[in-house]
Amino acid sequence: MEAAVRTELARVVGFAGPADAPQVLADWLARRLESQMRLGGPITDPVGWLIGRGLLETRLCAEVRCDEGTLLDSGRDCPRCEDRQVNSCATPRAVAAAVDAAMPGASDADRRAAPTGGCMRL
């Protein structure tokens, strides 16, 4: 477990610097613990949780400072994640508008069955 903590601390030093890295890592763990308690309930295996969830890098974003939508060095929302969320919400609306334009007057069932070029079904 010590090796896992040292590895994550070294990664955080890369963008937060050696003076701030311990606090940044502690804040990261505190956010994950708070999320666990709110969504997943009590932790029955602290070591397992720390290695399997607390220190596990969740890479949903290309921003190295981002962890699950939060910038580790500032605690602010990640702008890349916000952009991705806006785009993912806009895509279904754009597909729906394109299908509506291509199939005016079609029933809902026909519009849902229309090919969408790999996008989500409406």
Protein structure class: mainly alpha
Mean pLDDT: 77
Instruction: Spell the H/E element sequence.
Output: HHHEEHH
Helix content: 55-70%
Q: What is the number of helical segments per DSSP (H or I, 4+ residues)?
A: 5
What is the total tally of β strands? Answer: 2
User: Beta-sheet strand percentage?
Assistant: under 5%
Q: Any low-confidence stretches, pLDDT <50, length ≥5?
A: 117-122
Provide the domain count. Answer: 2
Global morphology: elongated
Strand line-up across the major sheet: 1-2
In whole angstroms, the N-to-C terminal distance is 46 Å
Q: What's the story with the biggest beta sheet?
A: 2 strands, antiparallel
Radius of gyration: 21 Å
Question: Keyphrases for this structure?
Answer:
mainly alpha; disordered C terminus; single chain; 122 residues; 5 helices; elongated
Description of the structure:
With 122 residues, this protein is mostly helical. It folds into 2 domains: 2-77, no CATH class; 82-113. 61% of the residues lie in helices and 3% in strands. It is built from 5 helices and 2 strands; from the N terminus they run αααββαα. The protein has helices at residues 2-16, 21-40, 46-54, 79-102, 108-113; strands at residues 66-67, 70-71. Strands 1-2 form a two-stranded antiparallel sheet. Residues 117-122 have low confidence and may be disordered.
